[in-house]
Design goal:
Blueprint lengths: L1 H23 L1 E5 L3 E5 L4 E8 L5 E6 L8 E5 L2 E6 L9 E8 L2 E12 L6 E4 L3 E2 L4 E10 L5 E7 L2 E8 L9 E9 L9 E8 L10 E7 L2 E13 L3 E3 L4 E10 L3 E7 L5 E5 L3 E4 L8 E9 L2 E12 L4 E5 L3 E5 L4 E8 L5 E6 L8 E5 L2 E6 L9 E8 L2 E12 L6 E4 L9 E10 L5 E7 L2 E7 L10 E9 L9 E8 L10 E7 L4 E11 L3 E3 L4 E10 L3 E7 L5 E5 L3 E4 L8 E9 L2 E12 L10 H29 L11 E2 L1
Parallel strand pairs: 2-8, 10-17, 18-24, 26-32, 41-47
Antiparallel strand pairs: 1-3, 3-6, 4-7, 5-6, 7-8, 9-11, 11-14, 12-13, 12-15, 15-16, 17-19, 19-22, 20-21, 20-23, 23-24, 25-27, 27-30, 28-31, 29-30, 31-32, 33-34, 34-37, 35-36, 35-38, 38-39, 40-42, 40-48, 42-45, 43-44, 43-46, 46-47
């Protein structure tokens, strides 16, 4: 019996522990079941558990649509953040928590709304007494629309109320409002026009359900009864002064503006003050002056005519009746007026072509600046001055030329004594070409001269050259070659009219008289050293280059030293060695033939081989003698000597 009791007690204890454990695992959400979020804002849904050390979480929508949010799990808590809130977040979200085989689920319903801005009041026109106007109250970006209510009040009196009870066909932000038309009176001045909007959502705070906008009414009266007073008179002497005052009635007080009526009836603005003062009056100041009173709802105008009597004046133009301008330069033409305090100055060409220049006028002086003068500027320009009703005109003629740079001297090649060379003198960008003369001088001697008198059919910049060919000599070195160009235009005043370039001649002499000195000899025993020294005449001094002639006739470069030294020679060093002297004027060469012989050996015994060599030598000696004989004869004809000597010069 006691054993059974122990068993019963143990089983009941286990059941109790299971019961306690199952009761301890709970799930909670924040908010608990429902939240209302503004579109564009941010909302966090929190799901947490108790009674489980390592729960797992998952989120889903009740209709199995995308979460449109970010989930973050930390220990016993999971957060779903919706940022920004949009139409895709209007769902019931379910949080599922699992702890082993146990699972719990809680739901949070997310409702959305949009009521971000105060209403906007718009008027169809400025308020004017007696003229109907339409007031519009707009509420932007509202959701849900069926909860919106709008009313418009003037001075506390309800003008119109409207509820938007029909739900929208689709989820979207809507802008809605109402319109009211009324006729303003003077009593409406200063009254408040109030547009109030309410989004009837009990789920959000009362302060978030209402928005309002207020506008204080400004009622206007159009300008009228505009009057002008003139002091001292409407008829004035030239150089005199006048003050004109204008006033106008209206609400708000009209803004006064002054204008002058041009000949075609257009108004030229003058001032925005009620008083207009004109000093130092000119003839052209005569005319009709207009005063306008203007406010938001209308305007009223009054006119007065002023008459200014004229006096004589004089016009001067500079730099004179004629000016020479180089193409590409800038020229300033000045027109000045005396005897007229406020002249009107204008410029034109005599043939009525474009000015192609910039006009600046200040007081009694006007300038016409011709920048980068071109052929289009070769005109007679007229300055017209108007003083009151009088007019005078002065002219100035612009003559063009182009002579911008010194001549350019060029040679067809380097100067070599005795070789013909062509020298050219080029004069660039000349105008007019028929006035150009070019001449070439060598020292004081004129080599060539030419005038370019051909008739030019068109205006253009021309480049012309003068060429001549001569044969330089060494005596020409140091002589100065001069190219002179002259633009022979006596009637135009400019400098320089003559340009020149010089070049000092330096005549070159091609290498010549090349010679080679061989020491000790061009024929020597194997193992000995040999020095070959090359020299020659020329101007500038020739540059020496040593090479060896290969069996195929090509040259193998050895050295650029004047002396070529071969030490411990071998039989393979035999051959033809070439010395080349070169400068800017040409190249000359000299050859030397080097023969390296086998060294004789000293023996203390007489061998059969030596006996045979002795016999053979007895036959070869006559042959060698014949070779030496013919070699000497060949040397007398310009060949190289192979005779062994202490020193030989080739």
């Amino acid at each position: 019996m006691p054993g059974k009791m122990v068993m019963i007690f143990g089983v009941s204890n286990i059941l109790w522990m299971v019961f306690v454990a199952s009761q301890a695992f709970k799930i909670e959400t924040i908010p608990e079941s429902q939240i209302v979020a503004q579109i564009g804002g941010s909302v966090s849904l929190v799901c947490s558990t108790t009674g489980c050390e390592s729960p797992s979480f998952s989120w889903r929508t009740q209709i199995d649509s995308p979460l449109n949010g970010k989930v973050r799990n930390e220990g016993s808590m999971s957060t779903l953040t919706l940022d920004p809130v949009g139409f895709g977040n209007e769902h019931s979200y379910l949080c599922t928590a699992a702890c082993g085989s146990r699972k719990e689920e809680r739901g949070i319903e997310v409702q959305i709304y949009s009521f971000p801005k105060d209403p906007e009041i718009q008027l169809s026109a400025p308020l004017e007494v007696g003229k109907p106007v339409t007031a519009t109250c707009l509420v932007p970006d509202v959701y849900p629309l069926e909860r919106l209510e709008v009313d418009l009040r003037k001075g506390g009196h309800l003008l119109k109320n409207q509820e938007f009870l029909e739900p929208a066909e689709k989820k979207s932000l809507e802008t809605k409002g109402l319109e009211v038309t009324f006729t303003p009176t003077r009593e409406d001045i200063g009254k408040a026009l109030v547009c109030q909007a309410r989004l009837n959502l009990p789920e959000i705070d009362e302060g978030l359900q209402q928005r309002a906008t207020t506008e204080i009414l400004q009622v206007h009266v159009a300008p009228k009864n505009t009057v002008i007073s003139v002091n001292p008179s409407t008829r004035l002497p030239e150089g005199g002064s006048v003050t004109m005052t204008c006033s106008s009635e209206g609400l708000p007080a009209p803004q006064i503006t002054w204008s002058k009526k041009s000949e075609d009836g257009r108004l030229q603005p003058l001032s925005a003050n009620g008083t207009l003062t004109l000093i130092a009056m000119r003839m052209e100041d005569s005319g009709i002056y207009v005063c306008e009173g203007v406010n938001l709802v209308g305007e009223d105008r009054k006119e007065v005519e002023l008459i200014v009597q004229e006096k004589p004046f004089a016009v001067e133009i500079s730099p004179g009746p004629q000016v020479a301008a180089q193409i590409g330069d800038s020229v300033v033409l000045t027109c000045g007026v005396t005897g007229c305090e406020s002249p009107s100055i204008s410029w034109r060409t005599q043939i009525d072509s474009p000015l192609n220049g910039q006009v600046r006028s200040a007081g009694a002086t006007s300038t016409l600046t011709l920048s980068a003068v071109s052929f289009e500027n070769e005109h007679s320009y007229l300055c017209t001055v108007t003083c009151g009703r009088k007019k005078q005109e002065k002219g100035i003629k612009v003559d063009l030329y182009s002579f911008p740079r010194d001549p350019e001297i060029a040679m067809s090649g380097g100067l070599v004594s005795g070789q013909p060379v062509t020298v050219s003198c080029k004069v660039p960008d000349v105008y007019p070409l028929d006035r150009l003369q070019i001449q070439l001088l060598k020292g004081e001697h004129v080599m060539e001269r030419r005038n370019f008198l051909e008739d030019m059919e068109k205006k253009s910049l021309e480049t012309r050259s003068l060429e001549t060919t001569f044969i330089p000599t060494t005596e020409d070195t140091g002589t100065v070659l001069v190219c002179q160009a002259e633009l022979q235009i006596d009637e135009m005043d400019f400098e320089p009219k003559q340009r020149q370039s010089t070049q000092t001649l330096s005549v070159n002499i091609a290498p010549r008289n090349m010679s080679v000195l061989v020491s000790p000899s061009s024929t020597l025993e194997e193992g000995r050293s040999v020095h070959m020294t090359c020299s020659g005449d020329g101007l500038p001094a020739p540059k020496i280059r040593w090479s060896r002639q290969l069996p195929n006739g090509s040259l193998q470069f050895l050295s650029e030293n004047t002396t070529l030294t071969l030490t411990s020679t071998k039989r393979g060093d035999s051959g033809i060695y070439v010395c080349e002297g070169s400068n800017q004027a040409g190249t000359s060469r000299k050859e030397v033939k080097l023969l390296i012989q086998e060294r004789e050996s000293n023996k203390d015994y007489f061998s059969p081989g030596l006996l045979m060599l002795y016999c053979a030598s007895s036959l070869l000696l006559p042959a060698i003698g014949m070779i030496v004989y013919f070699a000497r004869r060949a040397n007398m004809k310009g060949s190289y000597s192979l005779v062994d000597a202490q020193k030989s010069k080739v």
